[in-house]
Amino acid sequence: MDMRTGVPRTALQAVTWRRLAISGWPWRSTGYLLATLPVAAVAAAGLAIPAVPWFVLAAGGFQAATIVTLILLGAVGVAALGPLVSIPAIACCRWRLRIVDKRPARPAGRRVPDSAGPVAWLRSRYTDPVAWRETGYACLLATVTHALCAVALLAVLLVWVLISSPVIVDIGGGPVALVFGQIYTVRQAVPYAIVGVVVLPLVPYLLTLAAGADAAVARALLFDDAEDRLRIELTEVTASRARLADAFEAERRRIERDLHDGAQQKLVALTMQLGLAKLDLPSGSPAAASVAVAHEQAKQLMAELRELIHGIQPQILTDLGLPAALEELADRAPVPVTVTARLDRRPPPAMENTAYFVAAEALTNVAKHSGATRASLTVSRHRDTLVVEISDNGQGGAGLTRGSGLTGLADRVAVAGGRMLLSSPPGGPTVLRVEVPCGPKSPAYG
Questions:
Q1: What is the C-alpha separation between 311 and 325, in angstroms, rounded?
Q2: What is the Cα Rg of the chain in Å?
Q3: Residue 159's closest CA among 179, 182, 181, 183?
Q4: Closest CA to 325 of 365, 364, 352, 350
Q5: pLDDT-based confidence at 240, cuts 50/70/90?
Q6: pLDDT in tens, 275-292
Q7: Which of 59, 136, 186, 314 is the most exposed place for a label (fewest CB within 10 A)?
Q8: How far apart are CA 351 and CA 374, in angstroms?
Q9: Of the candidates 320, 271, 324, which has an alpha carbon nearest to the alpha carbon of residue 298?
Q10: Strand, coil or helix: what is 375?
Q11: Residue 372: pLDDT above 70?
Q12: CB 87 within 8 A of CB 122
């Protein structure tokens, strides 16, 4: 179905459509079935020579060994010539499919350049799995499909004969031969006409179902499905994005660990050495003043490094989890923040980090741009979804187009497979809601 209009895009989808009987799909299906008959004749003509042993077998009167031999000879003949003789019939089939299938499709099969020569083309043709699928469909077309289409069209013709039988008998003045017997009078024809009228509403469904079933088989065997290909590519992109997010998270943790265990420890040692050197130097000397300045700069640098490490990966988030980290975040916020945490189990680390940094960025925006006097921060878990909601009583008017802050948040949430919702009318209040998926298997808070 077309998601925007709700109109079927294929005959098989139209079978369950409420408006099928008054739509154009029955007429399109009728045209498709009528086009099938000459196409099937082309397929039968192409397969006539390789299938000669099977035609001989159909005559009957052979011994068991002869029957097996004829079956094998027919199979060898179809295998040897099928990929070649099926080409014209399959070309007609691809054209015919457009009647009852509006979806875009690309013909399946290998593409061999014209400059490659006939030998390369034959090699590609006989080693291409699609060519053998085409051969199989040509065999179906010449036998089963041809018969089913003929039966469907004859059934429709029979319904019309039943309905018009009283008129035919009256005008013709003679008997009308039906499958069930012969009709001699108009009075005998009336019950058959009633049956035809009762069965008539089923005719559109019969035609559409027959055409849709064959079109579905043809599309599966002869075409590359663009929607399936797009779905596969989207799955690959999603998996790739998840791998990149995991790699980014691991790299961030490594940087935080290296700064905490390496650079910070060395800076602490340097600060202590400068402090000891300041004590050893005479008070008031130029050297003591220079060392004192260096000591203060080292302490300031250590404080900045702690803030940097905290921004990369807060230690309290790693040790105590999201509720404790959000409480600390609220304590450091310039605007009074009320924190409500309803978590019975700890989310996965990646989702926990996403929720924390979304809350941190949102509270920063509240302090800088909203003019709010208070804010609230709520984190909860609904089934397998982690929900973070930040609201404030500020002036409102926030939007994704006003700057890169909220856009960056939305991108970060999207990488985690979640979504971000924003409500910020002019005059406030502003509510930011973030939902990220988290698996059901996660450790409980102790």
A1: 12
A2: 38
A3: 179
A4: 352
A5: low
A6: 777 777 777 677 777 777
A7: 59
A8: 26
A9: 271
A10: strand
A11: yes
A12: no
CB 8 within 8 A of CB 17: yes
Q: Which of 178, 149, 152 is nearest to 165 (CA)?
A: 178
Find tokens 């050893």 and name the residue: 280
Residue with tokens 């875009």: 104
| Owner of token pair 């895009």 | 9
- Residues 7 and 445: their CA atoms lie apart, in Å, by 50
Q: Rounded distance, CA 418 to CA 242, Å?
A: 12
Instruction: Kindly provide the b/e burial profile for residues 2-38, where b requires at least 16 CB atoms within 10 angstroms of the residue's own CB.
Output: eeeeeebbbbbbbbeeeebeebebbebbbbbbebbee
CB 378 within 8 A of CB 340: yes
SS3 annotation, 8-57: CCEHHHHCCCCCHHHCCHHHHHHHHHHHHHHHHHHHHHHCCCCCHHHHHH
The pTM is what?
A: 0.50
- List CB contacts of 401: < 8 A, sequence separation 6 or more: none
DSSP codes joined into one string, 219-263: HHHHEEEHHHHHHHHHHHHHHHHHHHHHHHHHHHHHHHHHIIIII
